[in-house]
Amino acid sequence: MKVDDISSVLNGEIVCCSGKSKQELTHAFASDLMSDVLTVNCNELLLITGLANVQTIRTAEMSDIDCIVFVRNKSVSSEMKDLAEELGMILVTCPMSMFRASGELYKAGMKPVF
After folding, report:
1. Is the pLDDT of residue 109 over 90?
2. Given Cys at both, which of 6, 36, 51, 100 links 96, Cβ 3.0 to 4.6 Å?
3. Residue 80, exposed/middle/buried by CB under 10 A (0-12, 13-18, 19+)?
4. Distance separating alpha carbons of residues 68 and 60, to the nearest angstrom
């Protein structure tokens, strides 16, 4: 599923690296526990989280995750955006809960990691 489509399904907004919006992602993982994110080994992975801070960006970098969706209307700080741009990481914000966002993406064809 393309990042453009992900953003559309979630009524979201691409706030960083919109030039990469045609990138394909096949799997999604939802968590607010970054220690759990570090255990996932999957290519073309989308991270869905409500934890909006620089550490989330760093964790995604260590896990080779190219796209993060921040749920529950979480804001992306300028520091987060700057770091994501430096890393070429796509950031999307959306108003939905993590549960609903995960369900909507699953219905649209996104595969779970487990």
Report:
1. yes
2. 100
3. buried
4. 8
d(CA 66, CA 24): 10
pLDDT of res. 18: 87
Q: Give the model confidence (pLDDT) of 28-58 as tens digits.
A: 999 999 999 999 999 999 999 999 999 999 9
Q: Is 111 helix (H, G, I), strand (E, B) or coil?
A: strand
Cα(55)–Cα(102) distance, integer angstroms: 22
pTM to 2 decimal places? 0.95
What residues contact residue 74 under an 8 Å CB cut-off, 6+ apart?
50, 51, 52, 93
Helical H runs in 1-114?
3-9, 34-37, 54-62, 78-87, 98-107
% pLDDT > 90, the chain: 98
- Rounded Cα distance between 109 and 114, Å, is 15
**Both tokens of residue 31?**
């968590």
Nearest in space to 65 (alpha carbons), one of 12, 29, 97: 29
